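DM between two lab members

TW: hey, do you still have the Protease HtpX homolog entry open?
JB: yeah, one sec
JB: this one, 304 aa:
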Amino acid sequence: MRSRFEPDRQLTARMAVTMFLLGLVYVAFIAALIVLLKSTVLVIVIAAGLLAAQYWFSDRIALYAMHGRLVTAEEEPQLHGVIDRLCATADMSKPRVAISEMDLPNAFATGRNADHAVVCVTTGLQRRLTTEELEGVLAHELSHVAHRDVAVITIASFLGVIAGLIVRFAFYSQLFGGRQRDQNTAALLALVMAVSALVYALSFLLIRALSRYRELAADRAGAMLTAKPSALASALTKVSGDIARIPTQDLRTAQAFNAFFFTPALGPGTAVANLFSTHPSLERRLEALAEISAELGEPGSRTP
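TW: and the structure you got?
JB:
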């Protein structure tokens, strides 16, 4: 059943194109590994197994990595109450609700589909936001579930992760293989590393292009659902400012999940990191929300 979240045909088209292109890259990647490693069954079994694990257990992996746990309505009545209201307004199934005991102010949605989705918020986010601001953030995350882009970004991220792991494996094999390896083996490992690096770069660029647009789409859908874009803009400003003050070590722990976060875990002075960020800049997001505010005629908004 379709929810009342505003549909986004551009997002749907971008997801389809991204998955098609990544599929082509993935097939070429597996074919190259089969030719280089001369082990068709092993490569296919490992690749299929890892992809299935990523798809079916993405929610558990994400919660485990972010120290999250599922909570009941009795444990977190306010959080459940906000999500209940938003789901009723959007006419969508309620996802599972989780809390992460981290001071890093953030939230994310994950899961292979709407029936197996989880929305998780950190205690740091709860502590910093008002009810209206929290509602805006949760509407943003629920729109990811409704638009089904959570599953797409989960699958899309998989290829880059595997390619990156193979690059590391080949690099350390060459580094520590020493004299025990003949020239043919060294050349083979170099080829595997080169192919994997190329695949990682292509998947990186495709995922970044999709991820930035999907965040703008989620901002718009969430703001339209609550009719309070200014509350979402306020939450964005607060969270982005406070993340800059989080210790670098804590940010590094969370950066692997930046594609799923409401706001990327990036510290100050990271111009290069911002260039390749999974999210649009704060200025771009605030500008888009200001336009929505004017469109809705929200009090205090600037007219064009």
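TW: got it. The mean pLDDT is 80. Residues 9-296 form one domain.
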